């Protein structure tokens, strides 16, 4: 079974440009989460989808970030315009959605974003 | 305000000895705790978890201990192996009544190095 995949693995852009990150969850997983780790700090929650619906966006830094999950399958996270402080590793995780609190989240390898 | 704290950025142990990684939390609403392991350029991988109604959970060489009154948990690895060298993240979450958002709150991680 394929794991969570993320594309691209790395992205280097200039301040003010737009970048779109993609996440493909494990097939059949209803829950999809985005997290971000800024260098040296903790991994922080950004938002959570259940199928195509946003369940919680409380971790989104500001309105420069837009997440979508088309048809409840893959998800995209767009940063527009990118700022220097957006640099970090963006992780996507998915879980099945029927085991509640004990459910395991499976993480993708992350997208390393560097804004110059 | 960091709700999950891993105060040791790094730990070095000899192969065959015990590794003890510590984690403290401040939010008394957390009722499920997890440890994730992360190798460079990969996403976090679930290792072991514990519910707040237990004080110990064991899986092979890995044991997690929870002290609710002290809001402290620890991960013991016995015996430690060079392949255990990685960053270990402590994470916590809480049940949301009526919802399904089990977002994780992470610590900053501890880099474990097991020397041959």
Account of the protein in words:
The complex is a heterodimer of chains A (116) and B (116). Chain A is 0% helix and 49% strand. Chain A is mainly β. Chain B has 116 residues and is mainly β. Helices cover 0% and strands 52% of the residues of chain B. In chain B, strands 2, 4, 5, 9, 10 and 11 form a six-stranded mixed beta sheet that branches. The radius of gyration of chain B is 14 Å and the shape is globular. The relative contact order of chain B is 0.34. The mean pLDDT of chain B is 93. The chains are: A mainly beta (116), B mainly beta (116). At the A-B interface, β4, β5, β9 and β10 of A face β5, β9 and β10 of B.
Mean pLDDT metric of chain B: 93
Number of strand elements of chain B: 11
What ranges of chain B have pLDDT less than 50 throughout 5 or more consecutive residues? none
Structural class of chain A: mainly beta
One letter per element, helices H and strands E, the order of chain A comes to EEEEEEEEEEE
The largest inter-chain interface, given as chain pair and residues per side, is: A-B, 30 and 28 residues
Termini separation of chain B comes to 38 Å
| Major sheet characteristics of chain B | 6 strands, mixed
Which properties best describe this structure?
heterodimer, A: 116 residues, mainly beta, seven-stranded mixed beta sheet, B: mainly beta, six-stranded mixed beta sheet, five-stranded antiparallel beta sheet
Outline:
The complex is a heterodimer of chains A (116) and B (116). By secondary structure, chain A is mostly beta strands.
Secondary-structure map:
The complex is a heterodimer of chains A (116) and B (116).
Chain A: E1 5-7, E2 10-13, E3 19-24, E4 31-37, E5 43-50, E6 53-56, E7 65-69, E8 75-79, E9 88-95, E10 106-107, E11 111-115
Parallel strand pairs in A: 2-11
Antiparallel strand pairs in A: 1-3, 3-8, 4-5, 4-9, 5-6, 7-8, 9-10, 9-11
Chain B: E1 4-5, E2 10-14, E3 19-25, E4 32-38, E5 45-51, E6 56-59, E7 62-67, E8 72-77, E9 86-93, E10 105-106, E11 110-115
Parallel strand pairs in B: 2-11
Antiparallel strand pairs in B: 1-3, 3-8, 4-5, 4-9, 6-7, 7-8, 9-10, 9-11
């Amino acid at each position: 079974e394929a794991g969570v995949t993320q594309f691209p693995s790395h992205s280097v852009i200039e301040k003010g440009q737009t970048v779109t990150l993609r996440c493909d969850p494990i097939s059949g997983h209803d829950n999809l989460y985005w997290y971000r780790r800024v260098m040296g700090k903790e991994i922080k929650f950004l938002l959570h989808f259940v199928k195509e619906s946003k369940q919680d966006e409380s971790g989104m830094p500001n309105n420069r970030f837009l997440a979508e999950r088309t048809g409840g399958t893959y998800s995209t996270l767009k940063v527009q315009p990118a700022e220097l402080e957006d640099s970090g590793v963006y992780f996507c995780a998915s879980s099945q959605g029927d085991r509640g609190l004990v459910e395991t989240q499976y993480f993708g390898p992350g997208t390393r974003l560097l804004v110059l | 305000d960091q709700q999950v704290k891993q105060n040791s950025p790094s730990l070095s142990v000899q192969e065959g000895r015990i590794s003890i990684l510590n984690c403290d939390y401040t939010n008394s609403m957390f009722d499920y705790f997890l440890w994730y392991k992360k190798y460079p350029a990969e996403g976090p991988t679930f290792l072991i978890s514990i519910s707040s109604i237990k004080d110990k959970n064991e899986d092979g060489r890995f044991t997690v201990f929870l002290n609710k009154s002290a809001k402290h948990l620890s991960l013991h690895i016995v015996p430690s192996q060079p392949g255990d060298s990685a960053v270990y993240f402590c994470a916590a979450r809480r049940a949301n009544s009526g919802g399904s958002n089990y977002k994780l709150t992470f610590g900053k991680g501890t880099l474990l190095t097991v020397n041959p």
